[in-house]
Design brief:
This protein is of the alpha+beta class. 18% of the residues lie in helices and 26% in strands. It is built from 15 helices and 37 strands. Helix 7 packs antiparallel against helix 8. The longest helix has 18 residues.
Length: 707
């Protein structure tokens, strides 16, 4: 039912950039000219009752997505403009809305909740006064209601909905034809500035007998239909149920068994949306499972069929692939450097389902790592800027297909990730589970030939290069619930290592090995990591008096009278006084390399790095927590495989991003409060962060980019 224009006009939606007098995020525009700097001169369309272009302005091409006329008309009717971007970032739903046909079954948001209905007409909204006007498009939807009856009187006008009001599109099924509103009912409606597109095609849909959805539990036949015995069901199976009146609903089996008054097997199904007269999992006064009120449907198991939305028809020759998710709008070929997502735009662009990087076939280690490194930080953006050489192709693929797509669209399809995995030079990266540190090392060292991120110097003055740092220590050296700062201090000091320079990115691998073993049940994240006392040949202050330190004592590290767990360095005077104590006379302080030009009483600057992401693992599955801005509560949780649509052969994973301000609230406590906190009593996101942490990612303040 696409409304076809003249095919010459080009439209776009603004997806990035700060609000200003002209274009702002969510605005719809028409391209008037392409400027030489890659900018667009465009006309801005306003909402309201007309689609007249209100003003003209210049916008960067990288801050826009191109739209077809039909997409622009649908989105123009959506208000507020922020909802346009939310809809645009749901590829499956928006694509289905764009090709809706007459009599397609949809579920819309209504004042009473979620209501199923049939699409009856595509509506042009507005009055075209000038050649350049763009009329909005909406949908007339006839609600499915068992109480509706055919009346000889002219019915009230059908309600009008925007594309954003549609939350689900039910695919067409061939079912019996039943009564429906006559076409004459839609004639003669006199709505101001509203007209129908009478040529709305029926793209293969069938008229449905949909009366009686409110009484599905009563109208389901008790006799076996074509029971798919070759599809054994279990709790968790995704199924569909069709009533005697022809309405099909979808859901997940939450309970299976025999009801008290029946001998046959029944299924308790949690539906995708609320239906009148359905329950919260209760049947006959007994609670069989728990769900939202109005979503529990109990039917004979023989009435269940595999969800047809995820099954390929027998006539299809090709099998649906998990990566066959239609992108709403393909990104343009561009080599421009897209900056990280600003804090002010992160929530609207990223939070929700089908956001982030889509997982596929053991890719969670890679998805979580890439999202952590590139969504809100630019500390490793240099890997995307390789000018030439054998690594040019993969760096360009990383930049264009993953980093730029993530930062501009908020979603990277599994196909883009799979293409990137195939370029890593090893078949196991395409099929097998890996660890983040292995992927990082292979990518940076062997594939991109990037210089090491870490330069370490040992006590015997030998240098070591690395890309990540593995914590190595004895469990007895720290408290039961250590901080990342304590683990790093003790590990480096115990191994006799120092950083030669402040790294731009420090990725710290926690002391846990394999899928199950971890040295500490909980680790407290250090939002700031003070690297000052871990730098080689850098000024440090005396632990006691604050003057320039000249000695360091590893044995004093765990002294209970001297703040155990803190690195101890002393000036000459304090070193002598501290080690006159009988318990410390056996210590062996080491002389520090002190720059000769630094005065003994000069203040020593502190060098700190900021935590910007945490990779976590639980039962072989990697997820990540990412800090998306300087605000203390600006935390996101990302899971590339949070849910799944369909089965292993024909389905796909659904990535999800959730805002986690409670993580920031917990980490904003003082060191003393964190030391006394009981992690087991914290909320689920905080508990998961503390118990499942695998790798902490830090960046130096000079390299951080939060906009």
């Amino acid at each position: 039912m696409e409304f076809k224009g003249d095919g010459k006009d080009k439209f776009f939606i603004v997806t990035r950039g700060k609000a200003r007098k002209g274009f702002s995020r969510g605005c719809i525009g028409r391209v008037e000219a392409v400027m030489h700097k890659g900018e667009l001169m465009g006309l801005l369309y306003g909402g309201g009752s007309s689609g007249n272009p209100k003003s003209g302005d210049i916008v960067k091409r990288e801050d826009t997505y191109p739209l077809t006329r039909h997409q622009a008309q649908l989105l123009l009717f959506v208000s507020p403009s922020s909802k346009r971007l939310e809809l645009l970032c749901n590829p499956q739903l928006f694509s289905a809305i764009c090709v809706l046909s007459q009599d397609d079954l949809v579920v819309v948001k209504h004042k009473k909740g979620h209501q199923p209905g049939l699409v009856r007409n595509l509506m042009l909204i507005g009055k075209k006064e000038n050649q350049g006007d763009l009329l909005m498009l909406g949908f007339e939807v006839e609600f499915v209601d068992s109480d509706q009856t055919v009346s000889p009187k002219k019915p009230a006008p059908l309600p009008l909905f925007s594309a954003a009001d549609i939350i689900q599109v039910v695919p067409a099924h061939s079912v019996g034809i039943g009564p429906r509103w006559k076409d004459s009912y839609s004639e003669g409606l006199n709505r101001k500035a509203v007209s129908r597109i009478n040529s709305m095609p029926n793209m293969g849909s069938r008229e449905r007998q949909v009366r009686g959805i409110n009484h599905l539990d009563q109208n389901v036949t008790q006799t076996p239909t074509q029971s798919p015995s070759h599809h054994p069901f279990e709790v968790g199976s995704i199924v569909e149920v069709t009533s005697n009146t022809g309405i099909t609903v979808y859901g997940v089996i939450r309970w299976m068994g025999v009801l008290s008054e029946n001998k046959n097997d029944w299924a308790g199904i949690e539906l995708d949306y609320e239906v009148n007269n359905c329950t919260d999992g209760t049947y006959g006064g007994q609670q069989y499972f728990t769900c939202k009120e109005g979503r529990a449907l109990f039917v004979p198991l023989t009435k269940c069929s595999p969800d047809g939305r995820f099954l390929c028809p027998p006539s299809e020759k090709e099998t649906l692939k998990a990566t066959d998710i239609p992108p709403v709008i393909p990104l343009e070929e561009t080599d421009e450097n897209v900056p990280p997502i600003p804090e002010s735009e992160a929530l609207s662009l990223l939070v929700g389902k089908m956001k982030g990087i889509q997982g596929h076939y053991n890719s969670c280690y890679l998805d979580a790592t890439l999202f952590s490194l590139f969504s809100s930080s630019m500390t490793l953006d240099s890997v995307c800027h390789k000018p030439a050489g054998t690594e040019k192709s993969i760096s360009r693929s990383l930049k264009k297909d993953i980093v730029n797509r993530l930062r501009r669209q908020g979603f990277v399809p599994a196909e883009s990730v799979m293409n990137f995995r195939k370029q890593l030079g090893c078949d196991t990266f395409v099929t097998e589970e890996k660890d983040p540190e292995e992927f990082i090392t292979i990518l940076l060292q062997r594939v991109l030939c990037m210089k090491s991120l870490l330069k370490l110097r040992s006590n015997n003055n030998t240098s070591q290069d690395a890309y990540t740092f593995q914590i190595i220590l004895d469990k007895e050296q720290v408290t039961q619930t250590p901080t990342v700062q304590q683990l790093l201090d003790i590990s480096l000091l115990s191994c006799g290592l120092k950083f030669e320079e402040i790294p731009s990115c420090l990725m710290v691998h926690m002391p846990r090995f394999g899928k199950k073993y971890k040295m500490f049940p909980h680790i407290i994240p250090s939002t700031e990591f003070d690297i000052t006392d871990l730098l080689y040949n850098s000024p440090r202050e005396c632990f006691l008096c604050g003057r320039l330190a000249e000695y360091e004592c590893p044995q004093c590290l765990q002294d209970r009278k001297l703040q155990p767990g803190r690195i101890k360095q002393y000036c000459t005077t304090c070193k002598t006084q501290v080690h006159t104590h009988p318990s410390r006379q056996s210590h062996c302080p080491r002389a520090l390399a002190v720059p000769a030009e630094v005065p003994a009483d000069a203040p020593v600057p502190r060098h700190k790095m900021q935590l910007f992401a945490v990779l976590c693992i639980h039962t072989s599955h990697y997820v990540s927590f990412v800090k998306y801005g300087p605000g203390p509560r600006s935390w996101l949780f990302f899971d590339s495989m949070a849910d799944r649509c369909g089965d292993d052969q024909s389905g796909y994973n659904i990535p999800e991003i959730r805002a986690c301000p409670e993580v920031g609230d917990f980490l904003s406590q003082s060191e003393e409060e964190l030391a006394r906190a009981d992690p087991s009593q914290a909320g689920e996101p905080v508990r998961r962060l503390l118990s499942d942490s695998y790798m902490y990612l830090y960046q130096s303040a000079s390299m951080a980019l939060y906009r």
